[in-house]
Amino acid sequence: MKNIPISAMIGLFFTALYFLMALFAPLIAPYGMAEVVGDVWEPSSSEFLLGTDSIGRDLLTRLIYGGRTTIFIATMATILSFTLGSILGFFAAVSGGWVDQAISRFVDLIMSIPSLIFALVVLSVMPTTTTILILLMGLLDSTRVYRLARAVAVDITVMDYVEAARLRGEKFAWIIFREILPNALSPLVAEMGLRFIFMVLFISTLSFLGLGVQPPLADWGGIVKENKEGINYGIQAALYPAYAIATLCISINLVADWILNRTTSLKGGRG
Amino acid sequence: MAVEPLLKVRDLKIGATIYPPGERPRDIEIVHGVSFDLEGGKVLGLIGESGAGKSTIGLAAMAYGRGGVEITGGEVHVSGRDILKSGLRDVRKLRGGEVTYVSQSAAASFNPAKKIMEQVTEAAIFQGKFSKQDAEARAVALFAKLGLPDPENIGDRYPHQVSGGQLQRCMTALALCPEPDLVVFDEPTTALDVTTQIEVLAAIKDAIRDTGVAALYITHDLAVVAQVSDHIMVLQQGSMVEYGTTDQIINNPQEEYTQALVSVRSIKHEEKKPGDTPLLKVDHITARYRGTNFDVLKDVNVELHPGQTLAIVGESGSGKSTLARVITGLLPPSDGQITFDGRVLSPDLPTRSLEDLRELQMIYQMADTAMNPRQTVGTIIGRPLEFYFGLKGKDKQTRIQELLDQIELGDGFQDRYPAELSGGQKQRVCIARALAAKPKLIICDEVTSALDPLVADGILKLLLKLQKDEDVSFLFITHDLATVRAIADSIAVMFQGQVVRYGPKSQVLAPPFDDYTDLLLSSVPEMKLGWLEDVLANRKMESAGN
């Protein structure tokens, strides 16, 4: 831990801060999440640190709870997309032949439809619950993970040690989890950071369009949407969640960059 | 005062920064104060095992440190100037002008998108030594001198349109084109087939003699360097071991290390008589890769008897590795069958029984890629024990240690990762992994060709010892006839997918030879002066990969 560059330190600090705030939201937040405590768009004061929102709820409280929702959904969706994407990708790479062709072409098909439009169509017919959102985002994003996992695994499956395992008579599970996964982990973990950011942006976009997290539940994209009229009157309320999204994305990017640097370094920094 | 030598190196020290995993980077010294002189028109051979610092010293003659390597001390004088003190502008005039470089892999060094002529003449024109026309005329003359076919037009081809041996000669032409004073040859023939190596070697030797250029010839093969150089410097781990004339180093080595290098491959192996029933019978095997219309193997028939070694010899592309793939079931043959221990093997890997898989193990050429870098030695060797015999816990530990003792590694290796082993140690672990399955047959695919000669010698001795103790058979695939002489009981010589000569070792290696076997046998460099000239005068067949 000694050799962490300053940029990664900053990234780690803010990422940890946001995750802790999300975890302990009910303890930190000064008011209830949906509690109307003041006037519309009150300026910041000692009572309301960031002021109040379009219907008089405390903005800081909304932000903290909003972060909880956004981060929770993004995390779950990332986990889903990684588990599914990488297992399918490894399976396709190890199988090869028509299995690989079938999965890969299906994934190409899904990827050819812009994911935002795909999501909007699905959400317009499905009920907008947290579970549906996570499933939808996870499944859509797993196509991207699949491509990376397959590309990484294809390079590994041609190694002699994988051939040696096949000659030994090993089953798929051993080859995927014991031979390939440990060697593919570094690029996948780095990619995970980036995918997480896309998830945050995606859920924020959906909420901003009104198809994501439904009120009274707060999330950052939704807070922007609720307060966007205020910008016309010089009210900052809509900008705070935007700052939050931006800083979270940048700090995770910094961490991901550092991991990527470490794992792809030619100077033997692996592991 | 004596004439200043062309290249004068004094107390050269070279350092690098290493990045051990989990530790702070630290600086190490990789060349510890080497000094030598090279006069104009002479050839100095730098010889040593990998890690000896020979390439690093060669590049220092161009004031260059590759990949984070830094020249930390000493002096390098070229024609009287200390090039380590010159500015970058002077060094640029030197590189590609006065001093040029021939690398090991021509295929990786040429730009595939440019024609050969453009690349060969580039440095000469850039340095302002020749006009474009003169440079091209000179290149054509060099192509002719180096024995390239159609020297007038070969420059119009792209690098992939000529063979590996020809490309290596093109690179020699590239290095000689700007009329340098000194050429650094960095293992120029190592990546070539044995029969091609000899021709390239002869071409390089003639070109050096005719142009009167001085050369540093870097190689790990003492027999090769003995053919081209006037003086030889033996290096070990960044220090000079011995320096002398070629004659003295080859015929009268003083240092123990040099003596070991000269007498390498001194293994004597008594040929065993074949028994009644063969362990492995390859019967009329014909095979091709999917999607091609070309048979890589044509009607191959060989037999291997229990406890013996069959060597499959041939150059790259002869189909010897494909034969191994067919036997292991990775490539089902289109015709013929394989009998193993009295039963017919299923042609396809997934349908083979666990017993068949266990009794037929494989050892690979590159031990680096044959072991999962994320598994410890204990896991690598332990997995077959667990997989085939269901060994667990203490029993497994004991057996792993037994195997480690058998391959002469001893304690403390179980928890190491492959990256923490040397090349020879890695190959030993691979042998232990194969041995763990208690196989009847081990296929050894070029197992020693990536290793330094002394280390390879140790591996061969180990294999012979294991054969005696475990009564295991080896199918030994190699292009190196010295290895074959050392360990084989019978030999099959392969050429273009066919077995051209097959029988007990004593018969195959005794005259009368067919043309190809003669070519192959005569191409193995011998450690004596003047061998190259003798061979070229007496051979029957042109090199195949030419």
Global morphology of chain A: elongated
- In total, the number of strands of chain A is 0
User: Which quaternary structure do these chains form?
Assistant: heterodimer
Strand runs of chain B, count = 20
First and last CA, distance of chain B:
48 Å
Summarize the biggest pleated sheet of chain A: none
Structural class of chain B: alpha/beta
Helix content of chain B: 25-40%
Q: What is the mean predicted local confidence, pLDDT of chain A?
A: 86
Helix content of chain A: over 70%
Individual helix count of chain A: 10
Shape of chain B, please?
globular
β-sheet strand percentage of chain B: 15-25%
Please give the largest β-sheet of chain B.
6 strands, mixed
Describe this structure as you would to a colleague.
- The complex is a heterodimer of chains A (271) and B (546).
- With 271 residues, chain A is an all-alpha fold.
- Chain A contains ten helices and no strands.
- Chain A has helices at residues 6-23, 25-28, 59-95, 97-111, 115-125, 130-157, 160-168, 172-208, 220-227, 239-264.
- Chain A is elongated.
- Helices cover 36% and strands 23% of the residues of chain B.
- In chain B, helix 4 (116-126) packs parallel to helix 6 (164-176).
- Chain B has 546 residues and is an alpha/beta fold.
- In chain B, strand 19 and strand 20 form a beta hairpin.
- Chain B is built from 21 helices and 20 strands.
- Chain B is globular and about 70 Å long.
- In chain B, the strands form four sheets. In chain B, strands 6-7-8-3-9-10 form a six-stranded mixed sheet, sandwiched between helices. In chain B, strands 16-17-18-13-19-20 form a six-stranded mixed sheet, with helices on both faces. Chain B has a four-stranded antiparallel sheet with strand order 2-1-4-5, with helices on one face.
- Classes of the chains: A mainly alpha (271), B alpha/beta (546).
